[in-house]
Write a structure and sequence with these properties.
alpha/beta, 3 domains, five-stranded parallel beta sheet
Length: about 550
C-alpha cells in the first residue's frame, strides 16, 4: 500500500487547481435600479455609502449624475423601485426616499458641488432653457471647466419644475436651493430672455461654440371647441402656472379635468384644495395595462392618483369627452362616453368612444390636460438646418416627459458637447456590465425587513404645504441597508468561509483566487449572496 508523503492533517501538497475545468470570476454587474434610472445614477453605490452613514459621500456620488436629488426624490416616478430585486423578497427599497433625504441634508448642511478640474476652458457653451435638462447639462459642463450661459424666457428658473408642479409636491425653497447650488459653479443665468426676441438665434450661434436646446414642452394642446374663454375652459398648464405664480383662483363649485397625466392629477388636487368638487375624466385605467406591463396604462404616477382619490377627487376611468355643453352663453358641463379602445392597431394613443354610452357631467370649468408641445418660435434657424454644435434634449427631443429623464438627457448632451469640443468620445462603463436578476441573488441570506416610508400629512382645504414628509437619518440609514447590492461585492466573506480548499485569499478591499488550489467546485459562486461571482470555463 502506498503511503502519503505528507503528515496527516495537511492537504497543501495536493494542487487541486490542476483538476478544474472552470474557475470563479469576481465581476461587478449592473443592478436593475441603475439600469432603469433615467438619470443613470449609480444607485447601489450611494445607497451603500448611506447605509454606512457616509451621508456627504453618498450625496456626492449621487450628484455625479443628478444635481437635483432633493427635487427628484420628490417628483421622480422612480422606475428604479419597480425594477428593484428586493420587491421579489418583500418590498422594493425606498430609493427615492433616501435620495430625497440626501438632497435635503445637503441643503441643510450647505454642501457645495466641487469642480472636477482647475483648468478653465475658453470655449463657451449656451444652454437654452433652465429646466432640469438645461440645468443638468450646464452642471456637467461647468464642473469640467467650460463657461456656460443659460437663457430662459421665464422670470424664474426651473422650467416645468417651477411652473407645473404644485408646492405641496415640491416646495419652491427646495427647488431654488438646489438650483442655486448648481449656479454657484459659475454658471451665468439670463432670465426673461427669449431667443428670437431678446437675442437672435444667429447671435447665439456666433458667440457660442455649442448650443444645447432644452426648451421643454410648455405649449398646451387645446380642445378644438375652445371658444369659451378662461372662465369656462382652461389648459392644465396655464391652470398650474397661475397657481404656482401665487394666484389663488376663484373657482366654481364643479370642475372637470380631462386627461390622465400628472398635469391632470396635479390640477385636480389643486382645484380640490381651493374648495371645488373635481372629477377627472381619463381614457386610461390606472389599474389596467398596456404592452403587457401592469399599471403602465395611465401616464400619471399611481401614488399621485391614490392620493388624489384620498383627497376627494373623483376619477372616471375609461371615459372620453364627446362635446362641451352650453347653457346659454355659459358652460354647463361635458358630455362624456365610455372608451371602446384606447390605442389603434399601431399602438398609438387614439381613443374611440362607444356610441350610446353618453352621459352628462356637470361642470362650470373644464381644465384640459391633454398634452403639451414644444414652442420652437425664434429657434427655427438652429433646428431647421444641420449645423455642427447644435444639440437638442429633454422634452424637446421627444424623450419621455419626466423630470428624471430630462436630467439624464442633460448629462448625455454635456458628454456629447465635450466630445465635440475635445475630440475625445465619452466612455460609458455601465454599458459594458452584465445585468443581475433576482435569479442570481441568494435571498436566504437577507432577512425580511419592513420598508420605511415618509409620513403622509392630511390635506386641509386651501393648504398647499408639503404633503409627504421625508425620512429621518435613522430611517434613511435603515432603508439604505435594505439594498441587496445586486451584482456588487460587499465583502461578506462567504466565498472565503465556504471554500473547501482555502483557495480564496482576502486582500485589501476584495478577494483573489489561488489557482494552485481552486478546483472549480463553484461553492463560492453558489454562496455569493449578491450574484457577484460567475463560473467561467477554463480552456483545456
Amino acid at each position: 500500500m502506498n503511503r502519503l508523503a505528507i503528515e496527516p492533517g495537511s492537504t497543501v501538497a495536493y494542487h487541486t487547481g490542476d483538476w478544474r475545468n472552470q474557475r470563479p470570476a469576481y465581476r461587478d454587474k449592473w443592478p436593475p435600479c441603475g439600469q432603469t434610472c433615467p438619470a443613470e445614477e449609480d444607485v447601489q453605490a450611494w445607497l451603500a455609502l448611506a447605509s454606512d452613514r457616509q451621508w456627504e459621500a453618498a450625496w456626492r456620488t449621487l450628484t455625479e449624475r443628478n444635481p437635483l436629488p432633493a427635487v427628484m426624490g420628490r417628483v421622480c416616478y422612480h422606475p428604479c423601485e419597480r425594477a428593484c430585486n428586493r420587491a421579489h423578497l418583500d418590498t422594493a427599497v425606498n430609493i427615492h426616499g433616501v435620495e430625497r433625504h440626501l438632497g435635503d441634508l445637503a441643503l441643510q448642511q450647505g454642501w457645495r458641488h466641487r469642480p472636477l478640474t482647475d483648468q478653465q476652458q475658453t470655449q463657451q457653451v449656451a444652454v437654452v432653457g433652465a429646466g432640469p435638462a438645461g440645468l443638468s447639462c450646464a452642471f456637467q459642463l461647468a464642473r469640467r471647466g467650460f463657461p456656460v450661459t443659460i437663457f430662459d424666457a421665464q422670470s424664474t428658473p426651473g422650467g416645468t419644475l417651477s411652473s407645473g408642479i404644485p408646492e405641496y409636491r415640491l416646495p419652491k425653497s427646495v427647488m431654488q436651493g438646489e438650483i442655486n447650488a448648481i449656479l454657484a459653479l459659475g454658471i451665468q443665468l439670463k432670465l426673461n430672455t427669449r431667443i428670437g426676441a431678446d437675442i437672435s438665434a444667429d447671435t447665439l450661434r456666433e458667440e457660442f461654440v455649442a448650443v444645447f436646446l432644452a426648451v421643454g414642452a410648455l405649449q398646451p394642446r387645446t380642445y378644438p371647441d375652445d371658444g369659451y374663454g378662461d372662465h369656462s375652459v382652461m389648459s392644465g398648464v396655464d391652470f398650474l402656472r397661475r397657481i404656482n405664480d401665487g394666484e389663488r383662483l376663484s373657482l366654481p363649485g364643479q370642475i372637470a379635468v380631462i386627461g390622465g397625466g400628472n398635469t391632470a392629477i396635479d390640477a385636480a388636487r389643486c382645484a380640490r384644495r381651493l374648495g371645488a368638487e373635481v372629477t377627472v375624466v381619463c381614457s386610461q385605467d390606472p389599474h389596467g395595462s398596456h404592452g403587457g406591463h401592469p399599471g403602465a396604462e395611465i401616464p400619471a404616477s399611481l401614488d399621485e392618483v391614490n392620493q388624489a382619490e384620498a383627497e376627494g377627487v373623483r376619477l372616471r376611468y375609461r371615459m372620453g369627452v364627446q362635446r362641451l355643453v352650453r347653457s346659454g352663453a355659459h358652460l354647463s358641463g361635458v358630455e362624456i362616453a365610455r372608451v371602446d379602445q384606447i390605442h389603434d392597431r399601431h399602438g398609438r394613443f387614439n381613443p374611440v368612444l362607444f356610441e350610446g354610452t353618453e352621459e352628462f357631467l356637470p361642470a362650470s370649468l373644464v381644465v384640459f390636460a391633454i398634452g403639451q408641445e414644444v414652442d420652437w418660435r425664434g429657434l427655427e434657424p438652429l433646428v431647421q438646418t444641420e449645423t455642427s454644435g447644435i444639440f437638442v434634449g429633454g422634452d424637446a427631443a421627444g424623450k419621455p416627459r419626466f423630470a428624471a429623464t430630462a436630467v439624464g438627457s442633460g448629462y448625455q448632451a454635456a458628454m456629447s458637447i465635450i466630445a465635440l469640443l475635445t475630440g475625445v468620445p465619452p466612455h460609458y462603463e455601465h454599458h459594458d456590465k452584465a445585468e443581475v436578476t433576482f435569479r442570481d441573488i441568494k435571498p436566504q441570506y437577507y432577512p425580511r425587513q419592513a420598508r420605511r416610508e415618509g409620513a403622509l400629512m392630511a390635506a386641509s382645504p386651501g393648504e398647499f404645504s408639503e404633503r409627504v414628509a421625508g425620512l429621518g437619518n435613522e430611517a434613511a440609514h435603515e432603508e439604505a441597508g435594505r439594498c441587496l447590492n445586486c451584482g456588487i461585492c460587499f465583502q461578506c466573506d462567504n466565498c472565503w468561509h465556504f471554500c473547501p480548499d482555502a483557495a480564496v485569499i482576502k486582500q485589501g478591499q476584495g478577494y483573489r483566487i489561488d489557482d494552485d488550489y481552486c478546483k472549480g467546485c463553484g461553492i463560492c459562486a453558489e454562496e455569493c449572496p449578491s450574484g457577484h461571482i460567475d463560473m467561467e470555463r477554463v480552456a483545456g
